[in-house]
Design goal:
Elements lengths: L1 E6 L4 H12 L4 E7 L4 H11 L3 E4 L2 H13 L6 E4 H9 L6 E4 L7 H9 L3 E4 L2 H18 L3 E3 L2 H9 L8 E8 L17 H5 L8 H9 L1 H14 L6 E5 L5 E7 L4 E5 L23 H12 L1 H19 L7 H12 L8 H26 L12
Parallel strand pairs: 1-2, 1-5, 2-3, 3-4, 5-6, 6-7, 8-9
Antiparallel strand pairs: 8-10, 10-11
Bound molecules: NADP nicotinamide-adenine-dinucleotide phosphate (NAP).
The site of NADP nicotinamide-adenine-dinucleotide phosphate has 28 residues, from helix 1, helix 6 and helix 9.
């Protein structure tokens, strides 16, 4: 029986993981769960799975959860909070498998500590690979433990690599649905609403990754994640727009042969007569080009890419900036970031905080500008 800790149990990936566990009784036990602010779901999950430890983001929420558990007659579950609590979930001595599915850099420290504690990690949180992939993969190699990609594209590559060795790989092809704005003219990007951007044509996911899919930044993050996971150069990782999303990824070997992974997720696989591929439009979706730039530079540039994107997406979702301004914020922050290597998680978190602050300033300037408060010639994009 596998003993599992889930980081981000209340999210889309976390809930799917628990559905899988539910479907295979006797094969898995849930040791520890980490949630953010969704107390209602966290309470239901603890009542159902009786983990030894649960963690939530805020101290006051931990107190509320303790009281609710007591009132509902659940005992023996320790309730922790904050980043210390998340790290304890990630490193719980009884867990042998950790699912990393917190969104954003909030999951970084816990994911790294899980790897350092010798756990096998199932990796959904791509942002932590973008920000700290070099350190995380080096630590996993030191521990002799695999990092198992949960993201469908990287999982597909992982599976195709059973057909050949990594030294025999010429390049890999990550497929992209193209998002909801594949056929939308760029001239209309400034009027895209939050509702339109959240309506992904293919996948139902959390809010940040859905917006990242609409800007193609999600694909850019996947390029960086693939470089770090499979130790490939950015030029060896190609993106192909494939609107049917039936092929999740392909691996091209040095002899010219290509292995593709098709996955049965729903009835779309029945329609194999229509499989289209097209190159991505980097001019229309500059986030992908910015991600390639950060993939090559690594270190502080990758950290800045993720931090600026996290801030810009949140600002778009809050109605503070327009859809087309997400790219402007990220590009500005990236241009201001020096290309330096970061040798510890502490330095990565410091660089992350700096890039976030810079991104908040850009957001503020852009929203002031739209409100007509303080024109800023330094920022283009109206
Ligand atoms: N969804 C997919 O199909 C998919 C596919 C591939 C990769 N991914 C990646 O998987 C990760 C999760 O995506 P998702 O779609 O599942 O996101 P989501 O639905 O937004 O869930 C995010 C999870 O992170 C938790 N969280 C947020 N801030 C936290 C904090 N400070 N401390 C502890 N927990 C915190 C949330 O808790 P609360 O809800 O309780 O606040 C929730 O459990 C992302 O990195 C995404 O890029 C997702």
């Amino acid at each position: 029986m596998r003993s599992i800790s889930i980081l981000g149990s209340t999210g889309s990936i976390g809930r799917s993981t628990l559905n899988v566990v539910e479907s295979y009784p006797g094969r898995f036990q849930i040791v520890a769960l980490a949630a953010g602010r969704n107390l209602e779901t966290a309470l239901q999950q603890v009542q159902r799975w009786k983990p030894r430890l649960v963690s939530v983001a805020a101290e006051k929420d931990a107190e509320t959860l303790r009281k609710s558990l007591k009132a509902s007659g659940v005992s023996g579950v320790e309730v922790a909070y904050g980043s210390t609590g998340t790290v304890r979930v990630a490193t719980h001595p009884d867990a042998d498998f950790v699912v990393s599915a917190i969104v954003g850099v909030a999951g970084l420290e816990a994911t790294y500590e899980a790897v350092r504690a010798g756990k096998t990690v199932g990796l959904a949180n791509k942002e932590c690979m973008v920000a700290a992939g070099e350190l995380i993969t080096a630590e996993a190699r030191r521990q002799g433990k695999p990092l198992l990609p949960i993201d469908s594209e990287h999982n597909a590559v992982h599976q195709c690599l059973r057909g050949g060795r990594i030294e025999e790989v010429e390049r890999i092809w990550l497929t992209a649905s193209g998002g909801p704005f594949r056929n939308t003219p760029k001239s209309e990007f400034s009027s895209i609403s939050v509702e339109q951007a959240l309506a992904h044509p293919t996948w139902k996911m959390g809010r940040r990754i859905t917006i990242d899919s609409a800007t193609l930044m999600n694909k850019g993050f996947e390029v960086i994640e693939a470089c770090r996971l499979f130790d490939l150069k950015p030029e060896q990782v190609k993106v192909l727009v494939h609107p049917q999303s039936t092929i999740h990824s392909m691996v091209e070997f040095v002899d010219g042969s290509i292995l593709a992974q098709f996955s049965v997720t729903d009835m779309r696989l029945m329609d194999l007569r229509h499989i289209e591929f097209a190159p991505p439009d980097m001019e229309k979706f500059p986030c992908l080009a910015l991600a390639y730039e950060a993939a090559g530079a690594g270190g502080a540039k990758s950290v800045a890419l993720n931090a600026a994107d996290e801030v810009a997406v949140a600002a778009f979702l809050d109605g503070r900036i327009r859809f087309d301004q997400i790219t402007i914020v990220i590009e500005k922050v990236l241009n201001e970031t020096k290309s330096v290597k970061l040798e510890s998680i502490k330095r990565i978190l410091e660089a992350d905080a700096g890039a976030r602050k810079a991104a908040q300033e850009k957001v503020q300037q852009l929203s002031n500008r739209s409100a007509g408060l303080r024109p800023s010639p330094a920022l283009r994009g109206d």
